[in-house]
């Protein structure tokens, strides 16, 4: 089967999941942006990459059949968003093969998962733990600056004031965006699965570290230690923190692409 008709067949076979997806994103169209960007990315790859010198391989029908079988069986025990993830992986698998005539990297599965409307679920499940982590790590950093700060839950105590780490300060948005950027880089650079796993782990650490720096910087504003700070500083610090995360993630991806492990005999 040619890959392009296979894309249509897979979409039709998983239409119930796509119908759920379109209903979900119709209420918040911005949640569809990541999936649209993923499809655009694959299209750009098809245009810019040179065709392989070897003859194109046939579409791995067994892989497609397996994904569709898992999708069909998941109706009884998986939530709608998980079934939509399986449908999206199967569809983009065929789309990637149609565009580049090669098996997609493992990172495409993670990229597809993040391209679904998962951010509200991540906020619900990871928001509070990440606020605790950020507040805990911010305390020694602020104390190193000479501030007698203590943590109580998601609050920082200083001079009888309680400064809260609210939901936007959890860093979940930064974590999601950093992982999305990292997985896009893994697909573009065709990183080996082990290198992709290392890139994901480092991206997680970078997101947490930069969010701690962001929260610590915002403490000076919220505690009025910076007099007459403009209102836009709050958003500006957040943008600067993400810019640092993005730049560091891209630098690590390039380093991982060029890194080759040496054996003990060398």
Summarize the structure in short.
By secondary structure, this protein is mainly α. 69% of the residues lie in helices and 4% in strands. It has 2 domains: 3-104, no CATH class; 120-258, no CATH class.
Number of strands: 3
Major sheet summary line: 3 strands, antiparallel
Unreliable stretches, pLDDT < 50, 5 or more residues? Answer: none
Gap between N and C termini: 47 Å
Along the chain, the helix and strand elements come as HHHHHHHEEEHHH
Strand residue percentage? under 5%
Write down the overall geometry: elongated
Averaged pLDDT? 82
Q: Find the structural class using helix and strand composition.
A: mainly alpha
Helix count equals 10
Structure report:
The protein is mainly α. Helix content is about 70%, strand content about 5%. It has a three-stranded antiparallel sheet with strand order 1-2-3, with helices on one face. Strand 1 and strand 2 form a beta hairpin. The mean pLDDT is about 80.
What is the topology?
Elements (H helix, E strand, L loop, with lengths): L2 H11 L1 H13 L5 H16 L12 H13 L6 H21 L6 H9 L3 H26 L5 E3 L2 E4 L2 E4 L7 H18 L3 H30 L9 H27 L8
Antiparallel strand pairs: 1-2, 2-3
Helix pairs in contact: 1-5, 2-5, 3-5, 3-6, 4-5, 5-6, 6-8, 7-9, 8-9, 8-10, 9-10
């Amino acid at each position: 089967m040619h890959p392009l008709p296979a894309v249509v067949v897979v979409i039709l076979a998983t239409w119930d999941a796509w119908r759920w997806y379109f209903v979900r994103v119709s209420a918040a169209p911005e949640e569809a942006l990541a999936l649209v960007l993923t499809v655009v990315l694959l299209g750009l790859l098809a245009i810019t990459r040179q065709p392989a010198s070897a003859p194109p391989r046939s579409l791995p029908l067994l892989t497609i059949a397996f994904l569709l079988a898992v999708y069909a069986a998941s109706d009884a025990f998986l939530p709608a968003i998980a079934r939509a993830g399986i449908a999206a992986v199967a569809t983009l698998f065929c789309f990637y093969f149609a565009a580049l005539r090669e098996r997609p990297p493992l990172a495409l599965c993670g990229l597809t998962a993040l391209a679904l409307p998962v951010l509200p679920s991540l906020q619900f499940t990871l928001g509070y733990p990440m606020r605790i982590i950020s507040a805990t790590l911010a305390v020694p950093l602020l104390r190193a600056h000479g501030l007698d700060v203590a943590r109580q839950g998601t609050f920082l105590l200083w001079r009888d004031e309680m400064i809260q780490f609210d939901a936007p300060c959890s860093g979940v948005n930064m974590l999601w965006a950093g992982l999305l950027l990292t997985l896009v880089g893994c697909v573009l650079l065709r990183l080996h699965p082990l290198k992709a796993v290392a890139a994901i782990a480092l991206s997680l650490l970078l997101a947490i570290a930069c969010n701690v720096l962001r929260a610590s910087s915002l403490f000076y504003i919220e505690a009025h230690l910076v007099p007459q700070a403009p209102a836009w500083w709050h958003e500006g610090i957040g943008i600067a923190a993400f810019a640092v995360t993005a730049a560091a993630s891209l630098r690590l991806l390039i380093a991982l692409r060029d890194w080759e492990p040496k054996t003990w005999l060398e």
